[in-house]
Amino acid sequence: MTPLKRPVHILARILLATTCLVGLAPLANAEVDGTGRLPRPAALAHDVDFWVQIYSEVTTRGGLIHDSRHLEVIYEQVTVPSGARGKARERFTDKIKAKYRKVLTKLATGKRTGLTAEEARILALWPEDVTNSDLRKAKSRLRFQLGQADKFKAGVVRSGRWKQHIEKVFAEHGLPKELTALPHVESSFTPWAYSRVGAAGLWQFTRSTGRRFLRVDNVIDERLDPHRATVAAARLLSQNREVTGTWPLAITAYNHGASGMRRAARKLGTKDIVTINRKYKSRTFGFASRNFYVELLAASEVSTNYEKYFGHLILDAPEDILTFEVPFYTKPGTLAKALGIDKKTFKEANPSLRPSVFSGAKYIPRRFPLHVKRGDLERPIADAINQIPASQRYAAQTRDVNYRVARGDTLSKIARRFKVSMSELVAINGLRSRHKIRVGQRLKLPSDGRTHRPRTITVTQADIPNSGQYTVRRGDTVTRIAKRFGIEEAQILEVNNLRNRNRIYVGQSLTLLADDTVPASPKLATTKGASVSKSKAAAPKAPSKSKTSPHPDAVATLSNPPERPAESHEPVHSTSLTETDVEGLDVDAPAVAMLDGDHLQNLLADPSDYGVGSNSTIEVQGAETLGHYAEWLDIRASRLRTVNRLPYNRMIAIGQRVKLDFSEVDATVFEARRQQYHRMIQEAFFERYEIEGTVTHVARRGDSVWSLSEKKYHVPLWLLRQYNPDLDFASLQRGTPIKIPALKERENWVSQQVESRTS
What we know:
Elements: H1 10-29, H2 45-56, E1 62-67, E2 74-79, H3 87-107, H4 117-124, H5 132-138, E3 142-146, H6 149-159, H7 163-172, H8 182-186, H9 207-213, H10 226-244, H11 247-256, H12 258-268, H13 273-279, H14 287-304, H15 306-310, E4 321-324, H16 332-339, H17 343-349, H18 355-358, E5 370-373, H19 381-386, E6 401-404, H20 411-418, H21 422-429, E7 442-445, E8 469-471, H22 478-485, H23 489-495, E9 509-511, E10 617-619, H24 626-633, H25 637-644, E11 657-659, H26 667-688, E12 689-698, H27 705-712, H28 717-723, E13 737-745, H29 747-758
Antiparallel strand pairs: 1-2, 1-3, 4-5, 6-7, 8-9, 10-11, 12-13
């Protein structure tokens, strides 16, 4: 194995305190008002008041019937029947909304005299100059908002445990103090909270966003650790502010995504939060996103002045914890006993340890930060660790054994087949329900020395894509690809100039047909598996007429990258991902059906624009090729070259706009496939790395984005672009500040590589 280069993290530790922490403070202060508060536009005052009422007056036993766009129009405060939840509550509120819809229908006819007392009351909720058209539209905007006052009050009490820590971390990152109220909006300060979309913890990180800054797998989920997750939240908010330009947009991006907010600002030609709140229209910019900023302002008001709204409260005492590491793998019961505490107490202090650890399927990882309450200790931590017998010290983690769910499988069937318990399968895979698994899902099986039936891989013949290109996926080999498409291995090796059949990598674009070969079946398979890409492939030379030349669409790169030998297929930098690196990721999950190109739940921290413009053009992003576009469009890459008048030897450049041909698929399908592709790239990359912070590089003479990415900092271009979305990659000017994400190789990834080499 080629020795690993280390990403920029040693330098980061030296510079973070001065570059990131101090450097970000002016961003916060430049935008807040004279009192140090976030902007509070007068036009949003009614919206803030609405949420103050929800958080401080209306409990979860009831709610408000209101207009969804004019929050000052509150028709009624209702009490929900005891025990009514979900559909029952919806039926109850629907009846009330029907009553108001009937009145609004009558008022929309222009009737203003002879009104009943109720009709006059409803009309008086609106301005005197309200039009019949306004009232007709109001019929479709009737909405019920459940109260939150009791939950918010309980959250204020719980917040005492972590408030000091959050304020300290946010101050170090130069963030406005009001942002510390965000957990009230996200989770009511409930660190064990899970949402319906899989967001978790105090800060409600989705899995993919969390993995940028935290470890999230079947052994550890640091989203559930309030201390570690707080640092991650500060980093995400800082990045959002960098790429959106204002705090209102950065805060809204926490819900809607940085890319979505950049698109909103670009579409309306302004970063004004009022204008965006009132005028931006998108199928994904719904009530939650539109109100996220004002909810934060309201939460800050109520939590800061909680005695004004709730009276005297006794907040939970701040946590007094000690953090330590164990230099070997061990069991939680063993460590708890050595510390002199019971297993339950140890579990409560370490919420990031997944059920697989406490079920015995996995060990506590070595060198992982663990917590213990100071008052629970009976002996010094070092003494306790030294007392753990050698027989309970393990050199390696238990191995994962995987099984791919087949049609007709149930969790109980799988458990019986492999002679394990259902509870073990639920724990080790972090399943929310034992009744919900899907065909193709990869399940981890307990590995404790028992013999399991070997996993089989079925290769089915598929149609060759119309583009003639195939993107290498995890688990692929030249042999499997050849069998999948019914072609000879020798043909793949010759057409792609592959000198070693074992040197292909995830994300590599392979040409399946020679120029004079006609595919047996031109129709593309209906369902495409997602692919995981390298950060960036080697930039090829201009092709010759030989069939063995590299494909010119090898990578979306800079306008004039340094040339590399045509036969070289080595990773350009250490942050590239090989096939082995991404083993264990489920790349066969179907693409999410997207409603709009500006939002994807799994790409909330990604500011890149993956949408299609009104003129059928897109902005080229890192790790993309014309071959990718052709595959997602079900057409040939040559068609795109014709449409864009691109010579065969010219590569597309990051930031360039490319016109697409939607004759075979529509823009929604294309966007879904494109976003799925980038989601898998990022999942694979953050399997190995996490972001520790940022450093600022000031461009000097001779610098290029390519050299900074590939040679100096070893950060993939696509990630560098995410931190500098407005930077002109093709023309870097001396003196330009460039944000560089500081990367840290994950301890668990390093351990896996060592174990795989020694086994």
